[in-house]
């Protein structure tokens, strides 16, 4: 199948470019200026020229803290732009795969969120992504949206790479231990999308294959727990690691508030698409192999 991917250098787009051809798909991955989600004409032209059979939106404004002072840009990309791309897919009766975030939730629910839980974003990024979900679903009934969280990969900017850098630069690192969720490796997300595509391509509007799904890695942890695993893996590969201490969110103020408990129940994607949450510890190990090299010691 010919698949148009919006985004080319982002974490997810890079993994899609690697994963989709393995299923025989031909991928056209574009980002600005060829496909700029804030430019309707570029969207029209890109879709016309690529003539895809499915469209995946891996592009987004992802600067969570900056979004607090760039509301218009965050909404232009994540809400209006996502909606325009979904509409361009709908005009050709194409399935549309889109990505959203645990930041659509407030994080004070006291339990993991399922796909039907009430939303209540606490910052501009989450608001823009929630508006994007609504715009996408309104524009194209053949849309599947995956809410995910804590996305990491060997490419781009992410927590794993930040921890490895801090480990090299500092003797001690403090990480928040009171925000709960789960890391998601972009390769696992790309794999899930590849597995969903054939059914999405065949299913008519109204089929349960479409709608909102949750997918993160498993098991749930905290940022501190994730940092512990990163440093254990790094040490086993002979990488210098710092002393790690646990702090609270109150000790580490950021412009945007983050959900204290952004754990996502991933049941619907398992029931409908047969996709299970991947164990992020194994995916972390592969990511560290790519970033540092293979393990040299038992951990
Ligand atoms: N990174 C994370 O921790 C999380 C990401 N997500 C979502 O997952 C999806 C993929 O995220 P990542 O790959 O991590 O993001 P990323 O930040 O690595 O890549 C985003 C891509 O979008 C492109 N882009 C930005 N503005 C654009 C525009 N106006 N037109 C076209 N392209 C544009 C960028 O150039 C970049 O290639 C996004 O929808 C994001 O909101 C959800 C939860 C957590």
UniProtKB/TrEMBL annotation:
Pathway(s) where this gene product acts: Carbohydrate biosynthesis; dTDP-L-rhamnose biosynthesis
Molecular function GO terms recorded: dTDP-4-dehydrorhamnose reductase activity
Cofactor note: Binds 1 Mg(2+) ion per monomer.
Catalytic activity: dTDP-beta-L-rhamnose + NADP(+) = dTDP-4-dehydro-beta-L-rhamnose + NADPH + H(+)
Keyword Nucleotide-binding set for record: no
Transit peptide found in the keyword field: no
Role of this protein: Catalyzes the reduction of dTDP-6-deoxy-L-lyxo-4-hexulose to yield dTDP-L-rhamnose.
Name this polypeptide is given: dTDP-4-dehydrorhamnose reductase
Gene name, Swiss-Prot/TrEMBL: rfbD
């Amino acid at each position: 199948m010919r698949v148009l991917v919006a985004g080319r250098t982002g974490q997810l787009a890079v993994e899609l470019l690697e994963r989709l051809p393995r299923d025989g798909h031909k991928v056209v991955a574009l980002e600005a200026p060829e496909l700029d989600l804030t430019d309707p004409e570029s969207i029209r032209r890109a879709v016309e020229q690529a003539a895809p059979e499915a469209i995946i939106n891996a592009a987004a404004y992802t600067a969570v803290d900056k979004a607090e002072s760039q509301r218009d840009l965050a909404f232009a990309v994540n809400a209006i732009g996502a909606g325009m791309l979904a509409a361009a897919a709908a005009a050709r009766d194409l399935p549309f795969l889109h990505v959203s975030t645990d930041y659509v939730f407030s994080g004070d629910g006291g339990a993991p969120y399922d796909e039907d839980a009430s939303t209540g974003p606490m910052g501009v990024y989450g608001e823009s992504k929630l508006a994007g979900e609504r715009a996408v679903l309104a524009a194209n009934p053949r849309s599947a949206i995956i809410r995910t969280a804590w996305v990491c990969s060997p490419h781009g900017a992410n927590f794993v790479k930040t921890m490895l850098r801090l480990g090299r630069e500092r003797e001690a690192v403090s990480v928040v231990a009171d925000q709960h969720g789960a890391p998601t490796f972009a390769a696992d997300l790309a794999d899930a999308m590849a597995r969903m595509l054939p059914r999405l391509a065949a299913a008519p509007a109204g089929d349960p294959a479409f709608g909102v799904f949750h997918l993160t890695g498993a098991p749930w942890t905290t940022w501190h727990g994730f940092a512990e695993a990163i440093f254990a893996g790094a040490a086993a590969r002979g990488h210098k690691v710092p002393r790690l201490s646990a702090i609270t969110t109150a000790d580490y103020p950021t412009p945007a508030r983050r959900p204290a408990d952004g754990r996502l129940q991933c049941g619907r994607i398992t029931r409908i698409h047969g996709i299970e949450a991947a164990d992020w510890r194994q995916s972390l190990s592969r990511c560290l192999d790519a970033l540092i090299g293979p393990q040299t010691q038992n951990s």
